[in-house]
Amino acid sequence: MKGFAYLLVAVVAVTGVVVYMAHASGRSDGEADPVFGITIPPGYRDWKLISVAHEEGNLNDLRALLGNDVAIKAYREGKLPFPDGTIIARLAWSYVPSEENNKVFGRSQSFVAGPATNLQFMVKDSKKYATTGGWGFAQFKDGKPADAALLKTCFPCHEPVKARDFVFTQYAP
């Protein structure tokens, strides 16, 4: 029961940050990434949740993965490869301790999302992005697209999960 309470606190914290960040950042001036030509899709913050994750190591961030309606339908149906029109968003924040929550728990155990680190998209278009497994990749920081050198590392990173149509995250209903 105690584990469930901790999980519930974490989910509420991440959800609260997602809602707050919808008004605080991630705005784009419409500038497309220099490799795939992807812009930040309007309304992406209203998409459904696919999963959440904590990435340790050098990144040490919290992530919320969202999908447009096409993505969510494919995930729910277990459909691979994902159909054209699928868009998956990854919102990431630094991972920071919550002193306020730790006071309530009486010990250091609570971590929450801190400042936003970046925003990434995978866009499925099997013809347009045929050379990269049918996926276009984009990354934005403060609404500005990443440079071409960084974007060229996306597909090689996703190649090990080719059997899952180059998508790391599995659906967590």
Please give a structural write-up.
This protein has 173 residues and is α+β, with helices and mostly antiparallel strands. The protein has one domain (2-164): Cytochrome P460 (Chalcone isomerase), CATH 3.50.70.20. It is built from 5 helices and 6 strands. It has a 6-stranded antiparallel sheet with strand order 1-2-3-4-5-6. It is globular, with a radius of gyration of 17 Å. It starts with a helix and ends in a 15-residue tail after the last helix.
Q: Which labels suit this protein?
A:
single chain, 173 residues, alpha+beta, Chalcone isomerase, 6 strands
Topology (SSEs and partners):
Layout: H1 2-24, E1 48-55, E2 61-67, H2 69-77, E3 87-97, H3 99-105, E4 111-124, E5 135-141, E6 144-145, H4 148-151, H5 154-158
Antiparallel strand pairs: 1-2, 2-3, 3-4, 4-5, 5-6
Characterize this entry briefly.
The chain is an alpha+beta fold.
* Beta-strand content estimate: 25-35%
Q: Secondary-structure element order, as H and E?
A: HEEHEHEEEHH
Multimerization status = single chain
What is the CATH fold-level name?
Chalcone isomerase
**CATH level 1 class label:** Alpha Beta
Into which percent range does the helicity of residues fall? 25-40%
